[in-house]
């Protein structure tokens, strides 16, 4: 359980997340993930990083129960941890390949949207159920996976898109049976890692440099609204009614913050 690193092949580092039962990460988990990705990127022997997860889903976002139990302190920690982990993936000195199975929700979108390439299993689904959790965020990253109007529709409804749909949009490199996911991710990583290491790092820096959106600043802007919803009590009310709250705060007591 936790975050681990392995080196199955020369030039490739695999960072694996394992937080049963659904890979909803606590604050310490997001921080550990950020550090593991940064460490892999700093290693001069690494030319490609594979971001993977154990279990039936890639990532279910933050640990809501932790936030309910510890309130503002956990909310601040989760938001900072997510921002750090997403940035670590984007800023990793080497290309990052995400291997996605099952559900990729909330914070999972932040990770995958900032990766350089995505390989997914046939059962993978991608979405942001944030509004049902009384939160806002990661539209920045969903917009890197699907076209603008689809991103908005998915965001407002909380619906998910399948790996096959993302493949058609060009944001998923390959869709494979679940049993073949890790092998397919390593195959792509192996092809990348065959290139000159120094030139790969230059290429990653060059591509990030021409990105039209500053993903770190954009995401932090979104997070401001999550804080507002949490501090006003709106987040707790919406979460307690499963995302259905049309009375603008009438009825019900202020709840705990959520992301």
From TrEMBL:
<protein>
    <submittedName>
        <fullName>Enoyl-CoA hydratase</fullName>
    </submittedName>
</protein>
<dbReference type="InterPro" id="IPR001753">
    <property type="entry name" value="Enoyl-CoA_hydra/iso"/>
</dbReference>
<dbReference type="GO" id="GO:0006635">
    <property type="term" value="P:fatty acid beta-oxidation"/>
</dbReference>
<keyword id="KW-0456">Lyase</keyword>
<comment type="similarity">
    <text>Belongs to the enoyl-CoA hydratase/isomerase family.</text>
</comment>
<dbReference type="GO" id="GO:0016829">
    <property type="term" value="F:lyase activity"/>
</dbReference>
<dbReference type="Pfam" id="PF00378">
    <property type="entry name" value="ECH_1"/>
</dbReference>
<keyword id="KW-0443">Lipid metabolism</keyword>
<dbReference type="InterPro" id="IPR029045">
    <property type="entry name" value="ClpP/crotonase-like_dom_sf"/>
</dbReference>
């Amino acid at each position: 359980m936790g975050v681990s690193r392995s080196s199955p092949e020369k030039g490739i580092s695999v960072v694996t997340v394992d937080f049963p039962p659904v890979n909803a990460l606590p604050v310490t988990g997001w921080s550990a993930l950020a550090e593991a990705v940064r460490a892999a990127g700093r290693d001069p022997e690494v030319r490609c990083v594979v971001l993977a997860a154990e279990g039936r889903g890639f990532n279910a976002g933050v640990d809501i129960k932790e936030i309910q139990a510890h309130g503002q302190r956990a909310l601040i920690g989760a938001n900072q941890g997510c921002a750090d982990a997403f940035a670590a993936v984007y800023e990793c000195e080497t290309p990052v390949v995400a291997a996605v199975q099952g559900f990729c929700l909330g914070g999972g979108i932040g990770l995958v949207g900032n990766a350089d390439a995505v390989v997914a299993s046939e059962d993978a689904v991608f979405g942001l159920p944030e509004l049902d959790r009384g939160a806002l965020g990661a539209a920045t990253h969903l917009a890197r996976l699907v076209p603008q109007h689809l991103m908005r529709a998915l965001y407002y409804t909380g619906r998910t898109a399948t790996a096959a749909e993302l493949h058609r949009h060009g944001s998923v490199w390959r869709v494979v049976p679940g049993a073949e996911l890790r092998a397919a991710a390593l195959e792509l990583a192996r092809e990348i890692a065959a290139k000159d290491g120094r030139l790969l790092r230059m290429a990653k820096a060059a591509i990030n440099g021409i990105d039209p959106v500053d993903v770190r600043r954009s995401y932090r802007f979104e997070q401001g609204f999550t804080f507002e919803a949490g501090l006003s009590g709106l987040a707790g009310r919406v979460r307690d009614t499963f995302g259905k709250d049309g009375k603008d705060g009438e009825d019900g007591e202020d709840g705990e913050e959520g992301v």
